[in-house]
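Anyone else keep sequences and structure tokens together like this?

Example one:
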Amino acid sequence: MKALFLLNINEKITGAITETKRYGWIFYFIEITDIHSLHKLDSIISKQFTRLEMFNKQPPKELKSLVKSHYSAKYSTFDGYIHNYGVYKSTIEKIRFLVKFGYLNEQDTQNFTEEEIARKFEIAKSTRLVKLEEDIGNIS
């Protein structure tokens, strides 16, 4: 549960990309120059973890940063810091995604055809991306 919570928070922080579309609010603020504000927001997010017993009242090392997300979005979108849905090509990769994000139980993965896995992946991807606001710009 902790891992899933952290995956979801990190995707909110970094946004996501798929094919040529960018999702998440970090892309709306890609041209800001006041990086200090992003540092402040990172601090606020980290402080919220001090209220969570399940994280021993401290931010996890795996928590992503708005500052780094901004840099990655602006200069190296495909460096792996921002969640890229385009990397899930094979059925095995899609199964790993579905299990990791809690859409499938690992024991149930053998009960589905490749087409069913592909459909479940597209539904899960769409559900997650709908929650992030789509940026009108395209990745060049």
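And example two:
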Amino acid sequence: MIWLASKSASRAAMLRAAGVTFEQVAADINERAMEKDMAGAPPDEIVQALAAAKACAARVADGGLVLGSDSLVVVEGRRFDKPESRAMAAEHLAFFSGKIMELHSAAALVRAGKVVHMEHSFARLKVRELSAAFIDTYLHAEWPDVGHCVGVFRIEGRGVQLFDWVAGDHFTILGMPLLPVLAALRAEGELAQ
């Protein structure tokens, strides 16, 4: 049995589209406290630690394989979390305007409390110059849905309008390095070879 320790609709949709049967389960961790404890650590270490913590925190039946995943955004050396309000989302977008966004995504597979596989990937996205009017119109259409998204966008929706170019794996941008996860699920005997 595969358990997804994430509330992310995007991650669940990716797995469903790939034909993976799973159940979602809550993973109650204090992400902000973990990030604070890891202040100064590289983004790849932080996102991997968060993915593993989510998978380890999920309470599932013995023998179940738990998939935890997390993403974070870094722009000009500053790490961004999900916006807590529409005003904060507008501030994030104004800061991102004209800059390179680095999006880190990680996935951890945990069985019986032990990490059996860890994966990290990142993408670079060039945010185009965003006018205040565009930001307001965009948030009018996308809020509150993008409030659950690091980077304040859903690439599969209007969020694609934020960017001049994207370099990296599409699934990573959606929130999980899916292809390596599928390979790990096959290696763990959870998917057909």
